[in-house]
Amino acid sequence: MNLLSFPLFIWKNHRGLALFSVIFIATLQFLIIKLVSDIDIAPIVSAVLEQLPPRVRSFINEQFLTLLSVQGAAAFGLNHPLALILLAINALTIPVRDLAGGIEGGSMEWLLSHPLTRTRLLLSLWASAAALLLLIAAGAVAGALSGILIYHQLSFDLFQKLLQIGANLWLLFLFIHSYTLLLAVFAREGSKTGICSAAITLSCYLLHFFDKIWDFLRFSKPFNFFNYYTPQDLMFEQGNLGLNAAVLSTLSLVCLGAAVYQFNRRDIPG
User: Quick check: 180 and 193 in contact, CB under 8 A?
Assistant: First the structure.
């Protein structure tokens, strides 16, 4: 098995979902920019906000006010739940299917019968997933850029901010992939790995939403990895990409290192 055989195997297994994600998310970004350009959404936002409780209204108001500008619309699109869900599915699927599922199904023992060390296999799996997630994040940024180029004027400053948000987005889901990989090397069943990782991801996302509404949850902010993805703050020069990148990169490498250590120790059933 040569150096590229396993990454190509990963690509063939997951290219359908990855390419669908690229097209869907890029189209979503484009349509959000087009919608903001074609429709005056200020009256719609005001009507919606009037129906909400005061505490929820203050939070939602911050989110929707950004939609009144092209910069805010681009940041909103890159934080849209549909885009995040698709990226999460891609981040979870690779370790669940190709690692935990391979161990459970017996194909992992066949792979390791080739001249391929466990460390190299796991690093190759992680790097392949990182490349696929980078492709999807780049597609999201490209969709936003294309909408801005057609319906607005793209400045170098806005281009730079979109690249920063795209990098932050990629690092967020690389971390989600990394802790799913760590769970997979401990698990005996692929389905349990997927359920556990999805539960962690969804719980942290909901907590990230509710800690802005309920004061008693605000203590959790520094410990929730979703708080280190800040597209609106980065767009309006209130965020810190260096801090976000440092936290998410460090956590990803810690999870990867722990996964390599455990994978080299565990038994692989035939």
Answer: yes
Going by the DSSP 8-state scheme, the letter that residue 98 receives in this structure is I
Cα angle: 109, vertex 112, 113; to 5 degrees: 90
pLDDT digits (tens, 9 = 90+) for 178-221: 999 999 888 776 678 889 999 999 999 999 988 877 878 888 89
Indicate left, alpha or beta for 93 from its phi (over 0: left) and psi (-120 to 50: alpha): alpha
Half-sphere exposure of 33 (CA within 13 A, CB side): 26
* Token pair 């190759």 in the structure block, residue: 124
How far is residue 130 CA from its own chain's centroid? Answer: 11
Instruction: Please tell me whether the overall predicted TM-score, pTM, comes out greater than 0.85 for this model.
Output: yes
Give the integer Cα–Cα distance in Å for 251 and 245.
10
Closest CA to 82 of 15, 37, 27, 162: 27
Q: Find out whether 36 and 67 touch, Cβ atoms under 8 Å.
A: yes
Give 68's DSSP letter.
G
CA-CA-CA-CA torsion sign (160, 163, 169, 175): negative
Residue 114 sits at φ, ψ, to 5 deg, of: -80, 165
C-alpha to C-alpha distances, 77 to 6, 52, 135, 186, 210, nearest whole angstrom: 34, 22, 17, 36, 20
Beta carbons of 22 and 135 less than 8 angstroms apart: yes
Q: What is the dihedral of CA 237, 78, 167, 118, to 10 degrees?
A: 150
Residue 65: exposure state from Cβ atoms within 10 A (0-12, 13-18, ≥19): middle
